[in-house]
């Protein structure tokens, strides 16, 4: 009984024909590095805001709190008393 061979059997390299369409071109290292960095940043954002309905509001609150803390630090340093006042009499 003769064996039937698949027409593409054994054609795994482009020089043998037919496989040139299957070759995946890898981008240069700089583009690949940038893509990986973007993907990592996206994953980090998704993890940070998991379960939060409104991430923009959370960011605004966070920035506002940082500004308030920064103001408190600058006023306490220039005031020289740490914010405590004594009244005698």
From TrEMBL:
<feature type="compositionally biased region" description="Gly residues">
    <location>
        <begin position="78"/>
        <end position="89"/>
    </location>
</feature>
<dbReference type="GO" id="GO:1904240">
    <property type="term" value="P:negative regulation of VCP-NPL4-UFD1 AAA ATPase complex assembly"/>
</dbReference>
<keyword id="KW-0449">Lipoprotein</keyword>
<dbReference type="InterPro" id="IPR055366">
    <property type="entry name" value="SVIP_metazoa"/>
</dbReference>
<keyword id="KW-0519">Myristate</keyword>
<feature type="region of interest" description="Disordered">
    <location>
        <begin position="37"/>
        <end position="89"/>
    </location>
</feature>
<dbReference type="GO" id="GO:0005789">
    <property type="term" value="C:endoplasmic reticulum membrane"/>
</dbReference>
<keyword id="KW-0564">Palmitate</keyword>
<feature type="compositionally biased region" description="Basic and acidic residues">
    <location>
        <begin position="37"/>
        <end position="48"/>
    </location>
</feature>
<dbReference type="GO" id="GO:1904153">
    <property type="term" value="P:negative regulation of retrograde protein transport, ER to cytosol"/>
</dbReference>
<dbReference type="Pfam" id="PF15811">
    <property type="entry name" value="SVIP"/>
</dbReference>
<dbReference type="InterPro" id="IPR031632">
    <property type="entry name" value="SVIP"/>
</dbReference>
<protein>
    <recommendedName>
        <fullName>Small VCP/p97-interacting protein</fullName>
    </recommendedName>
</protein>
<dbReference type="GO" id="GO:1904293">
    <property type="term" value="P:negative regulation of ERAD pathway"/>
</dbReference>
<dbReference type="GO" id="GO:0010508">
    <property type="term" value="P:positive regulation of autophagy"/>
</dbReference>
<feature type="compositionally biased region" description="Basic and acidic residues">
    <location>
        <begin position="56"/>
        <end position="72"/>
    </location>
</feature>
């Amino acid at each position: 009984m003769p064996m039937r061979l698949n027409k593409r059997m054994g054609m795994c390299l482009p020089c043998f024909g037919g496989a040139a369409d299957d070759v995946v071109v890898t981008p240069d290292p700089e583009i690949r590095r940038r893509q990986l960095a973007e993907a990592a940043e996206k994953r980090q954002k998704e993890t940070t805001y998991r379960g939060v309905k409104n991430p923009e509001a959370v960011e605004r609150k966070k920035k506002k709190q940082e500004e308030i803390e920064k103001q408190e630090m600058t006023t306490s340093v220039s005031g020289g008393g740490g914010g405590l006042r004594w009244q005698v009499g």
